[in-house]
Design goal:
The protein is α/β, with parallel strands linked by helices. About 35% of the residues lie in helices and about 25% in strands. Helix 1 packs parallel to helix 5.
Length: about 375
């Protein structure tokens, strides 16, 4: 079965969906409202489930070659004491790969290069998505009108398509946390591949890249839309007493390179990821907090599952029903687990609660901690023809 598809949104999930659909014989156009795809963004960690999806899409080898394995690291206190160490080699033995760190811009470029240039319609906004018949839909992009057998809404957490399909859904809500991110301007000497440090109402973490640079992030409990005149100076003030390499990572970053976004999520689960011939994918379907590092991985799972379902089932309707049945329970369970993980991390601020959490982490046996990670990483990708 083949057909024509329009993917609304040219992010990681949308590009992956387009690659998957093309691999099963569909004619695909990706509509992206940004005037240019300038490889913006900070860094991303890819777990085994996301890498398996990339393998099935045919870009896994290229992504691995541009990534750095996260073998050594763990969770620390602001004073530098270890709460938990994670053995990337043990994870690799269990699921075949360690977690891989890669600049988001590099991942986006590799996905984009897997598509022909004519498949990308850049600088075009999907003004409306309408059903035009029992098996067709139309995407109005203003200057262009695209008819399709399938529309994939991968237009992010603020999805306009989702808002039109589910007008009574409350939409994204603020999680209570805001995140500042950056990539160091130069290579930096690090003793670990990744770290996460939990303080009272704050978190700081880093992942090392293949070229020696590193991505860092700082999560703060603040009112929504809080912004700083000089974000880097504010972070230096807040984290000046935290263990190395936290100050060094900030010092190696250009002030203008700091990104600042509030962390929003779809707290109310959607009743379906499919309406007619429109399928929701990625953050448009299940935007989650980043506490498990699974947001992009779940979008990649969506993309491969959608393509496999459409390749296997006799009709588009049957394929979309299978996609919804397979993806909604898993992705919503991961979103819930991510929210719960955040409550045990930087969101804790009471000294007693922090002390109890730290003690529990130190006493958790390594095999048990590994099993908890494997709950989300141990996903088997469906096969694409």
């Amino acid at each position: 079965m083949g057909g024509t598809a329009v993917v609304v949104g040219g992010g990681i999930g949308g590009l992956a969906a387009a690659i998957g659909l093309r691999r099963i014989g569909w004619d695909v156009r990706v509509v992206e409202r940004a005037a240019s795809l300038d490889d913006a963004g900070a860094g991303i960690s890819l777990a085994a489930n996301g890498l398996r999806a990339l393998d099935e899409l045919g870009v896994g080898e290229a992504v691995r070659s541009a990534s750095r394995g996260q073998y050594d690291g763990g969770t620390r206190t602001p004073g530098g004491g270890w709460l938990a160490r994670m053995d990337g080699s043990a994870l690799e033995r269990a699921v075949g790969t360690p977690i891989m760190g890669i600049p988001r811009s590099t991942l986006h470029r590799l996905l984009r290069e897997a598509l022909p240039a004519e498949a990308l319609l850049i600088g075009a906004e999907a003004v409306s998505v309408e059903r035009t018949g029992p098996g067709t839909a139309r995407v109005d992009c203003g200057d262009a009108v695209l008819d399709a057998d399938l529309v994939v809404a991968a237009d992010g957490i603020g999805s306009a398509v989702r808002g039109r399909l589910f007008p009574d859904h409350p939409g994204p809500v603020y999680s209570g946390s805001t995140v500042l991110r950056g990539i160091t301007e130069r290579p930096i000497e690090l003793r670990t591949d990744f770290e996460l440090t939990w303080g009272h109402g704050a978190e700081f973490g880093h992942i090392a890249f293949r070229d020696g640079r590193a991505e860092w992030h700082a999560v703060l409990r603040l009112p929504a839309r809080t912004r700083f005149a000089d974000p880097l100076a504010e972070l230096r003030r807040r984290f000046r007493d935290w263990h190395d390499p936290v100050p060094a990572l900030l010092d190696a970053t250009r002030p203008g390179a700091v990104l600042h976004h509030d962390v929003n999520e779809l707290r109310a689960p959607l009743p379906s990821y499919v309406v007619g011939r429109v399928a929701l994918l990625g953050d448009a379907a299940h935007a989650m907090t980043p506490n498990l590092g699974q947001g992009a991985c779940q979008a990649l799972e969506d993309a491969v599952t959608l393509a496999a379902a459409l390749a296997t089932e006799a009709t588009v309707e049957a394929g979309l029903a299978r996609y919804d049945a397979e993806r909604r329970p898993r992705s919503q369970a991961v979103a819930l687990a991510a929210r719960q993980a955040g409550r045990m991390g930087h969101q804790l601020s009471h000294p007693l609660a922090v002390a109890l959490r730290n003690t529990a982490m130190r006493l958790t046996p390594s095999p048990l901690a590994l099993r908890m990670i494997l709950r989300h990483h141990a996903w088997t990708s469906p096969k694409l023809p």
